[in-house]
Amino acid sequence: MEFNEKRLTATEVISKIATYGDKDFVLSMDRDKNEDTINKYKLTSEDIIYYIRHLTVNNKPHCIENKDKRYKTKYLYEFKKNPIITIEDEYGDLVSVSMFFKVGFHSNKSIIYGVSFHEDDFIK
After folding, report:
1. Distance, CA of 99 to CA of 29 (rounded, Å)
2. E-state strands within 15-111
């Protein structure tokens, strides 16, 4: 299937995220890193959507080609400058965590994919 999508600028990515309703988010729950983060910090779908909605151009989204056939989009957007989130860990302690996010927009439906939402692998 060929997608005729154009690459979005950082500003366009952030603006587009704002246009989606909470029911339009499809979060990837089958990735180990995502599942581990959800369990460790007792995150809900609402929490994850909240964090995605609060990303800004300062988080420097950049475009990569999608190689995963499960997501009906040509491009995905990784956020290079990951936000530091203060969150309760599994022991009830407040900790600062650098989170990694990757999203994509369905090529012809009103769906936003939350592909990755987990602790940043490079900062621990």
Report:
1. 16
2. 25-27, 61-65, 75-79, 84-88, 94-105
Running DSSP on this structure, what letter comes out for residue 58? G
96 token code pair? 């600062």
B/e letters for 21-60, b = 16+ CB within 10 Å, e = fewer, are eeeebbbbeeeeebeebbebbebeeeebbebbeebeeebe
- pLDDT tens-digit map of 75-110: 999 998 988 999 998 899 999 999 999 999 998 899
> Would the pTM of this model clear 0.70, i.e. be above it?
yes
Maximum distance among all alpha carbons in the chain? 47
